[in-house]
Design a protein that fits this description.
- By secondary structure, the protein is α+β, with helices and mostly antiparallel strands.
- It has a domain of 95 residues: Rieske Iron-sulfur Protein.
- Strands 2-3-4-9 form a 4-stranded antiparallel beta sheet. Strands 5-6-7-8 form a 4-stranded antiparallel beta sheet, with no helix packed on it.
- A hairpin with a 5-residue loop joins strand 7 and strand 8.
- 21% of the residues are buried.
């Protein structure tokens, strides 16, 4: 016989605390990540000629996937992290829009605004500049 029997109340408190810890971990995993982990120095995305020929340049910008898109107004850089659930969006150059595979969200290629789906925020834009025929993400 156990010299220290566990009461029903102690067992329920332990089970409840364990359940809350598990649920909290699951929720924290799926929450949108903070995008402050971007490099302090500019990152070269590629040649402006290549951007104009392909329509886009995909790259890693710090810890996050990024993309530079050629628009009528000039090149624009976005995070490829969906603002709804942090899935990685894919760019469709034919449709000139981003598509998120997680919940079928769509974003406009020219300005990152939400076209369809559950996101309430547009894609995050990154600063960029062109120097000597090269496209850079970040500030000079």
């Amino acid at each position: 016989m156990n010299p220290h029997p566990t009461s029903r109340r102690a067992w329920l408190l332990a089970a409840g605390a364990s359940a809350l810890a598990i649920i909290g971990g699951i929720i924290a995993y799926f929450l949108p990540r903070d995008l402050r982990d971007t490099p302090a120095e500019p990152v070269r995305a590629g040649a402006l000629d290549e951007l104009e020929a392909r329509g886009y340049l995909a790259l890693a910008y710090g810890a996050y996937p990024a993309i530079v898109v050629s628009t009528e107004a000039g090149p624009v850089a976005y995070s490829r992290v969906c603002t709804h659930f942090s899935c990685t969006v894919e760019y469709d150059p034919g449709a000139r829009e981003f598509r998120c595979p997680c919940h079928d969200a769509r974003f406009a290629g020219e300005d990152g605004r939400v076209l369809a789906g559950p996101p309430s925020e547009p894609l995050r834009r990154f600063d960029l500049f062109v120097e000597d025929g090269q496209v850079y993400l970040g500030s000079r």
